[in-house]
Write a structure and sequence with these properties.
Mean pLDDT of chain A: 93
Helix content of chain A: 10-25%
Order of helices and strands of chain B: HHHHEHEHEHEHEEHEEHEEHE
Low-confidence stretches of chain B: none
Number of strands of chain B: 11
Number of helices of chain B: 11
Shape of chain B: globular
Order of helices and strands of chain A: EHHEEHE
Number of domains of chain A: 1
Strand content of chain A: 15-25%
Low-confidence stretches of chain A: none
Number of domains of chain B: 2
Oligomer: heterodimer
Structural class of chain B: alpha+beta
Mean pLDDT of chain B: 94
Largest sheet of chain A: 2 strands, antiparallel
Largest interface: A-B, 32 and 31 residues
Strand order of the largest sheet of chain A: 1-4
Strand order of the largest sheet of chain B: 4-2-3-6-5-1-7
Largest sheet of chain B: 7 strands, mixed
Chain lengths: 86, 274
């Protein structure tokens, strides 16, 4: 009756994102390694938004149903911030 | 190809400036923010849910095609496009597109891959809106183009393998020709992976001339939609016209001039199927 659950992809925002050590715009390794391109880079909704030139960015896994759990993003992340589970 | 749909008068009449400003200043948030209480996160699962999934699909299609008066820019009401072959893109840029014409960084490739590539050609009112947003404006290259430069650029992108698409923003105002790639393009993503009609197929389909085709298979590598297949037993390439978007990108790769575009209407089964 219910569709198959998508894999869970989580990013630890204490390591990556507006509070992390690395600017996701500079790194973006997970975005490039993912064949189905399930990640989205966007301005952080938790910070005051600069409508002209946003300074704080983070990455959110959005298209979870397309994730094949290949784990390439987990391996490529220099901060070990990504985890993938069922 | 209605010149009215490109005009500044139409843009003013439908308040396009405010719409585009709101839409573009936080475009990367379109899949993250709640739209009627629901985000696009794990959209594939949500669309497959019984009843809720159908409702969601119905309301998403309604949003994409909204022609109403009070359209909400942050959910991209009335924003959809169509695939066009290079020839038509040239006609639009050469004659119909309102000035100024700019070429800015593709926002889809930026948000889905973190790559800045100047390949989106925007015109009319939208140019002025994007010019105020520094993250979309190429730094070291000329981004304001005249008509001939715009035509040269779209030809270059098309030959590289990017699909030309023309966009309403919001319908019926036309102000962009993009050079899209699957799956990075937000529109092609929603169409191909989730079946939403954010991008319509073009008016044509690819046809392979069996006498000319030399079975080199190079065209197969260019197709973004998995339409072409090299069949060894026939020694030629076959076309799955049900999947073909009619972008014509495969033609540029063929050394033997074996692929041409035929009107979609030539095939009774495809008439009206976009």
């Amino acid at each position: 009756m219910f569709p198959k659950k998508s894999p869970k992809v989580t990013i630890d925002y204490t390591k990556c994102g507006e509070k992390g050590q690395v600017d996701p715009r500079e790194c973006a390794k997970c975005l490039k390694v993912c064949d189905p391109a399930i990640f989205i880079l966007h301005e952080s909704p938790n910070m005051p938004i600069d409508p002209v030139d946003p300074k704080y960015w983070r990455i959110t896994p959005v298209w979870l149903s397309l994730c094949n759990m290949c784990m390439k993003c987990v391996k490529v992340c220099p901060l070990g911030a990504i985890s993938v589970s069922r | 190809m209605n010149a009215k749909n490109y005009s500044n008068e139409l843009a003013e009449a439908i308040n396009a400036r405010e719409y585009l400003q709101e839409q573009w200043k936080a475009f990367e948030m379109v899949y993250i923010r709640r739209i009627m209480g629901i985000t696009s996160i794990d959209l594939g699962y949500k669309l497959q849910l019984p009843i809720i999934g159908r409702l969601l699909r119905w309301s998403a299609e309604r949003m994409i095609h909204s022609e109403g008066k009070h359209r909400n820019p942050v959910r991209a009401d009335g924003h959809f496009g169509q695939v066009i072959p290079l020839e038509e893109a040239k006609i639009i840029l050469g004659n119909l597109a309102a000035e100024p014409i700019i070429e800015n960084y593709c926002m889809c490739r930026w948000m889905q891959r973190g790559i800045k590539e100047a390949c989106c050609i925007n015109f009319g009112l939208l140019s002025g809106v994007i010019e105020k947003l520094p993250r979309f404006i190429p730094k070291d290259t000329k981004y304001r183009l005249d008509r001939d430069e715009a035509i040269a650029h779209i030809e270059e992108h098309n030959k590289k393998g990017y699909v030309a698409t023309v966009w309403f923003q919001p319908v019926p105002y036309i102000n962009a020709i993009c050079s899209c790639e699957n799956p990075e393009c937000g529109g092609l993503r929603l169409r191909n992976d989730f079946g939403l009609h954010t991008v319509y197929k073009g008016e044509y389909v690819a046809e392979v001339d069996p006498d000319r085709c030399q079975a080199c298979g190079i065209c197969v590598t260019k197709c973004q939609f998995g339409v072409l297949r090299l069949v060894q037993s026939l020694k030629r390439v076959i076309v799955d016209i049900n999947k073909c978007f009619g972008c014509g990108v495969c033609r540029h790769a063929c050394k033997y001039d074996a692929i041409k575009l035929a009107p979609r209407d030539n095939y009774p089964a495809l008439r009206g199927v976009y």
